[in-house]
Amino acid sequence: MAIIQSRIIHAFGPILLSAAKEVFRWKDGAFMVFPHPEGALCVATDGQTLAMMLDREAAVASPRAFHLPEALIKACAPRAPISSIYADEQADLPLPEWSQPAALQLTHACASVLPAMHHPKDAEWKPRGFHLLGRMGREDGGVQRVTDYQVFTPTKDPRVILPTIVPGATRLSMDPALVSNFSLIKEVFGETGCMTFTGGTDHSPIMVLLERCPDFFGAISPMRLSQETEWPEFAKALRDEVSAERAKSADAERRTEVAEGRP
């Protein structure tokens, strides 16, 4: 039916997993593929967020919708390198391409995650070939992630941003959980570009664009604007305190310039 880039499924993972957990919110398949003159249009939605990506390497004859198992979505994530440590040296050793996902094959019967290259044993199995995952049932395998605890002394003071914020200049209300649905899309396709959120009223969706990625477009459902827009008292006091300190410092610097005869 269609073969699309597996990294699109990986990037759309937060939205697809959100839809998988909210089956009553979006029952008709969270992932859809539509024919497009320049390939295939891949769309993911959980009913509140939407992301679409034009896959110029894919093709599909007619629109199709899919409910992808969580195991299949997770199998589209690139395999992390193996960290090898010797004495005080560490090297990240990438896994071979036959273990890395490259494409997702969607058919009427099943879906399979295809590797970036054939396994060396494929020569014995032609024309079948190996795939990384092809099961359609739900599989809840636990994944453990370990992170070292680190403490740093800050080198910059982030409070200096407070006086530059203009209260009431813009009003945009959004659920942070919905915004986080786009984090992997930025990581996979954004490179060094920025993700922009524009618009958003009671009747207009929030438009999501990704710099230097013309094949992506996203949207977040409109939300009622929050009425609680007042700054917390501690933040207002801190803003005024930082502003006063900066003004005092600037005045002292100017007095020094005058005393030294600098223009």
Q: What is the mean predicted local confidence, pLDDT?
A: 76
Task: Strand order, main sheet: write it out.
Answer: 5-2-3-4-12-11-10
What overall form do the CA principal axes indicate?
A: extended
**Global structural class:** alpha+beta
Number of strands: 12
Q: How far apart are the termini? A: 73 Å
Low-pLDDT stretches are 137-150
Q: Give me the strand/helix succession.
A: EHHEEEEHEEEEHHHEEEH
Q: What fraction strand?
A: 15-25%
Radius of gyration: 25 Å
* Main β-sheet description: 7 strands, antiparallel
Count, helices:
7
The level of helicity is 10-25%
Could you write a compact summary of the structure shown?
It contains 7 helices and 12 strands. With 263 residues, the chain is of the alpha+beta class.
Can you characterise this structure?
The protein is an alpha+beta fold and 263 residues long. The protein contains 7 helices and 12 strands. The strands form 3 sheets. A 7-stranded antiparallel β-sheet has the order 5-2-3-4-12-11-10, covered by helices on one side. A 3-stranded antiparallel β-sheet has the order 1-8-9. Strands 6-7 form a two-stranded antiparallel sheet. The radius of gyration is 25 Å and the shape is extended. About 5% of the residues have low confidence.
